[in-house]
Amino acid sequence: MPILKAVIPAAGLGTRFLPATKAMPKEMLPVVDKPAIQYVVEEAVSAGLTDVLMITGRNKNALENHFDRNTELEAVLERKGDDRRLREVHQSTHLANIHYVRQRDPMGLGHAVARAQMHVGRHPFAVLLGDDLIDERDDLLKRMIEVFDSKPACIIALQEVDPQQVNLYGIATVEATDEDDVVRVRELVEKPKPADAPSNLAIIGRYILQPDIFDALETTAPGSGGEIQLTDALNTVAHSGAGGGVLGVIFRGRRYDTGDRLDYLKAIVQVASSREDLGPDFRRWLADFARGVEG
Q: Where is the Nucleotidyl transferase domain (predicted)?
């Protein structure tokens, strides 16, 4: 079956960004001039997935408002003749068909994904996490869909990370296939200690999931952090081979992590530096600023 739907979990409390996220969802924190969540929706749409389900929680109304119309703002921009900003406002409104369902209790990523079952049914679907922004010049999700079309299975995105940071990720044990960037996943472990990690291939926030994942999630007990971990359910699928088992696509492109304050600041600098409209002036200023700091 073709992949038609994308699921974006967005129910986290954003405690690492307090007090900024006391009243504003962390997904609405801006990366230059767009909220992080918009980059993720744009990526899904670019890959052909225009039916998007967001898993939200309390105090997430700003997400719905951002992707809805703001007729008063549109009227003001029209009166001013500010066509450029009016187009930008319309863009978020018309990006995709966006639906919302609540995760009432913060019980982990696996629990959030399970909330999508009634929407996606028994069809394969994509999951995109808002903490990981993939540069629009790198077609990770499109590549994952391409792999799925030829080798139906659960597909996870993998990237090599610093061995001392494996405790921040789900880590994979893999074996090679006939494609350089595709591996067969044999074992997954969530946030292992560096000394216990089987590799430094970490799961990053892009997945193609077969509906068999819902069966695995139903029997997945709380794991790391006392939460229901999607990694543990995928490990069950990898062992059973259900729905084709689990394959990994190794990503070697540009990824911007917005998961904590330092990485968020780095992401803003990286995205701004690559922009055609801002990049040249910003890079010059940044070089001068860095020299001043070093001095």
A: 5-272
